[in-house]
Write a structure and sequence with these properties.
This protein is mainly alpha-helical and 345 residues long. Helices cover 71% and strands 0% of the residues.
Length: 345
């Protein structure tokens, strides 16, 4: 007689037996090409939006660029966010920023008036420096001087090549001519780039480059096993900050500089950020939800239709909790204020 208590295993639900295997499914969902394309487009839109906002921003309100100096004039100056990172305690950063802007304008006035002589009137030169103007005249004058230097080099070359006695001397003359031409072009480009700093640097691009630099610093500090450099005496004598200092710069220094000293720009960029991520982030979330719940692939157009249809919901989803926190905090503030009134509290 057969044993009626015996059981035959006909299949195993591996997902319930080993729940940790869900992580592999999450990876498969994450690398779905449609979601990656949407994320890439969102990042490109943010970058392009930041650059457009930079180009529209007034010259006087742009970030102070780094100023490269000749070695005889001292070390190079930091850009604005670098100044903010390295400023000493008690220093008024607004005054420091105005002083650096004043240095740029004074140097530009001297070049316009005394060196290139494209604007001999003092008041007009100061107005051009204040607004970042006359760069077209500067470029034209630099090109003119560059062409004159190339022309002189060609004249010297023609005279020298006629008097060359052998092939070696002709080769030397030709090398000197090419070197002179390269120098003329390089000097003109370098001077125009330096003078172009009078227009300031885009706030977004300076913030972006600073944050990228901090990520690079983290990587190199990990490789060098430098964790506390910047917070304590640097044991490795490295110029770059250590891991913890770089993370602090990335999460605190850069964002706080943007919020504190370029508040209007921050608000506008935050609005742009919210709009882009409401559309593309909502589409990505919709594709992932359908993929996990139904194991179906949603098309790109269908996901975007869903996110644009729920645009306001995606916009206010992160804002409403913040508003609740602010309201609660304001109520607590009022309660503490009343509690500190003599005779009442």
């Amino acid at each position: 007689m057969a044993d009626e208590s015996s059981h035959v295993i006909r299949g195993i639900n591996w997902r319930e037996t080993f729940p940790f295997t869900q992580i592999f499914r999450a990876f498969r969902v994450a690398i779905h090409p449609t979601k990656l394309i949407l994320a890439l487009v969102a990042l490109l839109a943010l970058y392009l939006g930041g650059r457009i906002l930079d180009s529209l921003w007034p010259v006087q309100d742009r970030a102070i660029p780094a100023v490269m100096r000749d070695p005889t004039e001292g070390p190079a100056q930091d850009n604005e966010v670098g100044l903010f990172e390295h400023k000493k305690a008690g220093v008024n950063f607004d005054e420091l920023r105005k002083a650096r802007r004043g240095e740029l304008e004074d140097a530009y006035v001297r070049v316009l008036r005394d060196d290139l002589k494209v604007e001999t009137d003092e008041a007009a030169a100061k107005n051009a420096a204040h607004s970042g103007g006359d760069l077209g005249k500067v470029k034209a004058e630099l090109i003119k001087r560059r062409d004159e230097a190339v022309k002189r080099a060609k004249t010297n070359y023609d005279n020298a090549i006629k008097n060359a006695k052998d092939a070696n001397e002709r080769q030397r003359v030709e090398d000197e001519y090419k070197r002179a031409v390269r120098t003329a072009y390089a000097d003109a480009a370098r001077r125009y780039k330096q003078l172009g700093k009078i227009s300031g640097q885009g706030i977004f691009i300076q913030f972006f480059e600073y944050e990228v630099a901090q990520v690079n610093n983290v990587v190199w500090a990990v490789v060098a096993d430098d964790w506390l450099g910047g917070f304590s005496a640097n044991p490795l004598n490295r110029n770059a900050p250590g891991v913890l200092q770089s993370i602090s710069n990335f999460c605190v220094t850069g964002p706080w500089w943007l919020v504190r000293y370029h508040t209007t720009y921050f608000v506008l960029f935050l609005i742009l950020f919210s709009v882009i991520w409401a559309i593309f982030g909502g589409a990505i979330a919709r594709i992932a939800a359908v993929h996990v719940a139904r194991d179906e692939k949603l098309s790109l157009s269908a996901a975007l239709r869903f996110s644009t249809g729920k645009f306001l919901s995606f916009i206010f989803a992160p804002i409403i909790p913040l508003l609740i926190v602010l309201v609660v905090g304001f109520v607590v503030f009022l309660g503490g204020l009343v509690g500190n009134i003599p005779g009442i509290g």
